């Protein structure tokens, strides 16, 4: 069963009063949200804190608005985006701008998606250059090539049109290729 179908069932359970079903939503999306946040903030601890806050805010919203969320996946990524922006506003820290000397990918679930070692090396090269492109481009690259979202899903998450999202992804990848060649 797809995550989208599981999500709909869980949301129906919550709407029916089974508040403990929210744990299933957490289990379904927590690793992906953590990975998304992890690439956008300076430390592992910050990523853990923001991920926790994402699900707390989501829980509060569901309770306050009587479970009016139609697409929890897009909603939870939007909450994560907002909390990351709030983090940088509060801390006045610069976004990651030099991925070259930062942490190695800790979430080895990415290796399951990539079977060919040269593909892994290419991805690693691009990820090391990711901090050198602008934030919007970083975000669409992470959502497309790490999280595996479709362009249509990314458009919903980043509040852009489908065609503009395609252009953002294309430009980001072109810039990463250019940086990787240097």
Verbal overview:
The longest helix has 21 residues, at about 45-65. About 70% of the residues lie in helices and about 0% in strands. Residues about 95-115 have low confidence and may be disordered. It contains nine helices and no strands. Helix 2 packs across helix 4 (about 70-90), helix 3 (about 45-65) crosses helix 4 and helix 8 crosses helix 9 (about 160-180). It has two domains: about 5-90, Orthogonal Bundle (Rna Polymerase Sigma Factor, Chain: A); about 100-180, Winged helix-like DNA-binding domain superfamily/Winged helix DNA-binding domain (Arc Repressor Mutant, subunit A, Orthogonal Bundle), CATH 1.10.10. With about 180 residues, the chain is mainly α.
**How is the biggest beta sheet arranged?**
none
What is the total tally of β strands?
0
Please mark out the parts with pLDDT under 50 across 5 or more consecutive residues, or reply none.
Answer: 96-117
Net shape: globular
Report the top-level CATH class of the largest domain: Mainly Alpha
Estimate what percentage of residues fall within beta strands: under 5%
**Number of structural domains:** 2
Order of helices and strands: HHHHHHHHH
CATH architecture of the largest domain: Orthogonal Bundle
Question: In brief, what are we looking at here?
Answer:
Helices cover 71% and strands 0% of the residues. It has 9 helices and no strands.
Offer a few descriptive terms.
mainly alpha; Rna Polymerase Sigma Factor, Chain: A; Arc Repressor Mutant, subunit A; 71% helix; globular
């Amino acid at each position: 069963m797809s995550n989208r179908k599981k999500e709909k069932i869980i949301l129906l359970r919550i709407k029916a009063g089974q508040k403990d079903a929210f744990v299933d939503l957490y289990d379904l999306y927590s690793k992906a949200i953590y990975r998304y946040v992890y690439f956008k903030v300076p430390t592992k601890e910050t990523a853990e804190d923001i991920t926790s806050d994402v699900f707390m805010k989501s829980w509060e919203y569901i309770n306050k608005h009587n479970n009016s969320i139609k697409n929890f996946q897009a909603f939870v990524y939007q909450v994560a985006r907002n909390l990351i922006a709030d983090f940088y506003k509060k801390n006045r820290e610069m976004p990651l701008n030099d991925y070259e000397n930062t942490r190695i990918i800790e979430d080895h679930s990415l290796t399951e998606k990539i079977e060919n070692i040269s593909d892994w090396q290419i991805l690693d090269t691009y990820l090391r250059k990711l901090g050198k492109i602008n934030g919007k481009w970083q975000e669409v690259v992470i959502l497309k090539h790490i999280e595996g979202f479709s362009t249509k899903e990314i458009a919903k998450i980043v509040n852009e049109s489908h065609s503009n999202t395609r252009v953002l992804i294309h430009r980001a990848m072109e810039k990463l290729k250019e940086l990787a060649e240097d």
